[in-house]
Amino acid sequence: LAEIEIQVERLLYKGPDRVSPLTIPKLMLNAAGGNLSIRYGLRGPNFTVATACASATNAMGDALKTIQYDDADIVVTGGTEAAITAMGLSAFQNMKALADCNDEPHRASRPFDAKRNGFVLSEGAGILVFEELEHARARGAHIYGEVLGYGASGDAGHITAPDAAGSGAAQAMRNALRNAQLEPTAVDYINAHSTSTPLGDKAETNAIKAVYGDHAYKLAVSSTKGSMGHSLGASGGVEMILTLLALQTDTVPPTANLEVPDPACDLDYTPLKPASRKLGVAMKNSFGFGGHNASIVCGKLR
User: Fold this and answer.
1) Which of 116, 166, 189, 253 could form a Cys-Cys staple with 282, CB 3.0–4.6 A?
2) Nearest to 292 by CA among 165, 185, 177, 156
3) HEC secondary structure over 264-281
4) What pTM, to 2 d.p., does this model score?
5) Domain 97-124+144-299 is of which CATH architecture?
């Protein structure tokens, strides 16, 4: 977005001859993958996923499939986003998506809290190396965990609002569990997509209950966006890293700023402080504008 703003300003005030010839290579969604390929000599399947806030998790799912189909031994995957610009902030603000707790910005992102009223925009990147297990062992790689399954779905509803019942999100979670060949009771922790919006957090809660039944109340759940904000297409990669570290350390990261419980969001969301808990299997959820839903199941190396 920043590059678009710069080049549009040049076009309007200095003329078309002053627009950079590098504009298109900088704007291409696939530029990150292309540059990584060039820098590191990566010659396997190289493509970019664009599913809004589900992008990184969909990309990781495709990375898993690429290895399972024996099209690559190693895949660099994840997501990156940089949308903190005048245009980005204005657009999200005018669609009433952002939190308005301006007097206490550090408390503005409050997933699952009764006073939540929007997300805090952040930016960054979360990049992981997915690798076939025996290939990783043969080269002595440090293995952070095992990717067990992946599922995706579409809401077929509204372009920005989630399905209130969470049916699409629930389908992605069910698909991931089926792909992992696991029962819901095998999961110990869910790193939720929850962005601190009134609709989204409730919908994800409904989806978790629909999939996990009574076990939903035994799960540890948290949204790390309370601490880090919402990095849009990068969020799935960033939060997958946190999920793998949670498994390694048997520590559930907290949901920051969850101070006033919402009766409609009544699961164990690990409020305010991390929790020590034996963790073996975790699920990472990501949901994006357009009705895109993605879930990945991962676990400690067995």
Assistant:
1) 189
2) 156
3) CCCCCCCECCCEECCCCE
4) 0.97
5) 3-Layer(aba) Sandwich (3.40)
Confidence of residue 101 (pLDDT cuts 50, 70, 90): confident
The pLDDT value given to residue 69:
98
Which of the residues 106, 135, 158, 193 is marked catalytic?
Answer: 193
Nearest to 81 by CA among 234, 223, 226, 263: 234
Task: Please tell me what DSSP assigns to residue 22.
Answer: T
Determine the average pLDDT of the residues in 87-115: 95
Sign of CA dihedral 98, 99, 102, 104: negative
User: Phi and psi dihedrals of 38, rounded to 5?
Assistant: -65, -45
Catalytic (active site) residue 193: yes
103 pLDDT above the threshold of 90: no
**How many angstroms separate the CA atoms of 296 and 247, rounded?**
14
Cα separation, 203 vs 194, in Å, equals 9
Q: Which of 299, 292, 300 is nearest to 151 (CA)?
A: 292
Of 196, 192, 53, 194, nearest to 118 (Cα)?
Answer: 196
Give whole-number Cα distances, 201 to 68, 188, 195, 221, in Å.
33, 20, 7, 12
- pLDDT value for 162: 96
